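Supplementary Methods, section 5.1.

A reviewer requested that the exact input to the structure prediction be made available. We therefore reproduce it here, unchanged from the version used in the analyses.
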Amino acid sequence: MGARPCTVFGGEESDEGGRKRARRKHAPMVVYLPLVKNEAVDPLLDPVNDDWASFYEFQYEPKNFKRLLRLARENVLTSKQLLLDAIRRAVQIKREETVKAAA
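The structure derived from this sequence is encoded token-by-token as follows.
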């Protein structure tokens, strides 16, 4: 199984059987966008296995920085709908909490 370019934790979630699980009160919603290999962007770039792409490395050669930036941008664009859905859900949760608090 390959890594996904975006995962949302929190909000309304489904378990492995597709059943909805209740959101825990005050639990944060976390959007995780790891740098994952994307053959369409750069078939030679594997940020998990390329030593120079390690997150412990804070200085990149300009060409490698551009490669990582292009990969990150593509991961965000690929995940656009998931990101928008997560933002909408977070706003909906906040509105519901505000209404409950005002009641």
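The first helix runs from residue 62 to 78. These observations are discussed further in the main text.
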